[in-house]
Amino acid sequence: MAPRLRGLLFGKGHMGSHHARQLLARGDVDLVVVDPALGLPAPARLDADFAVVATPTVTHLDVARPLLEAGLPCLVEKPLAHNADAAFILAQYGRLTVGHVERYNPALDALWALQPRWVEAERLAPAGPRGLDVDVIDDLMVHDLDLARALLGGRLHEARAVGVGVHGLGLDIVKARLELGIGVADLTASRVSRAAHRRIRVVSEGVYWSADLAGRTLTRVRWGEGELEGERIAVAPEDPLQREHAAFLAAVRGEAPFPVPGAEGLAALQLAAAVRAALDRGPMADQRGPDRL
């Protein structure tokens, strides 16, 4: 059995509670949870092998930077920071993993080897106990911005978007169309829907794929061969967060590189900023993306 690791979890809110439950269920981790608002103060000495930062997004830089500066490996929840400038600072540290947990969804395993031309993602969540310190772009759409960039590759050529706020605290529903890398991504995100829904559709040469990310199912249609009925593809019965922890802890032990490094989290936030800029200019304007994306 691998040696036990000592971990610190900062924040026990919506996502922090999931991290706590999964890490405490492992047989190779001792965990201390830090959340002063819940009466869980930080220990006198931060004596640990790793840290997970699941505090509100606006605090990520202040919480994670001194830990990384001290050489402590950190898994920082998505989005990496509250803006691209703060994310750029954190991205300079090599022992950093960004918590883009959807990358570990087993329903996506068969898609990473593709070279798709079109990606469509729809991510809907009901109003509930979500953090409202960021808008729906950084809260929900950032998952699919990250996936679209990983699947399509390359820089952003053009962005168009439309969005509305419902609660008066920022954008709650956004639809974006991105010309990205070798293809196009159509993304929809809402955090005021009646029911939860997470689905991504990918079109590659001759094949159409539909993944239910919540139900963890994958369907393939070989349209290039005249198929109309979909074929269900086997999906590993694994939990994405458990997979994320396993990959991160392997890196902590020196057994593998750190997955989803800071540069990936920064790139997702740069795409989010491009979507926000497209919203500001209006959906019908020409929205050319910066060369750095």
CATH superfamily annotation of the largest domain = Dihydrodipicolinate Reductase, domain 2
Characterize the overall form.
Answer: globular
CATH class of the largest domain reads Alpha Beta
What is the radius of gyration?
Answer: 19 Å
Uncertain residue ranges = 284-293
Tell me the domain tally. Answer: 2
**Classification by helices and strands:** alpha/beta
What is the fold named in CATH at topology level of the largest domain?
Answer: Dihydrodipicolinate Reductase, domain 2
Mean pLDDT: 91
Give the total of beta strands: 13
What percent of residues adopt helix (DSSP H or I)?
A: 25-40%
**Count of runs of 4 or more consecutive helical residues:** 6
- Terminal CA distance reads 42 Å
Q: What order do the strands of the largest sheet run in, or round the barrel if closed?
A: 7-8-9-6-10-11-12-13
The biggest sheet amounts to:
8 strands, mixed
Task: Tell me what you see in this structure.
- With 293 residues, the chain is an alpha/beta fold.
- Helix content is 27%, strand content 28%.
- Strands 7-8-9-6-10-11-12-13 form an 8-stranded mixed β-sheet, with helices on one face. Strands 2-1-3-4-5 form a 5-stranded parallel β-sheet, with helices on both faces.
- Helix 1 links the parallel strand 1 and strand 2.
- Helix 2 (60-69) packs parallel to helix 3, helix 3 (84-91) packs antiparallel against helix 6 and helix 4 crosses helix 6.
- The longest helix has 20 residues, at 262-281.
- It is globular and about 65 Å long.
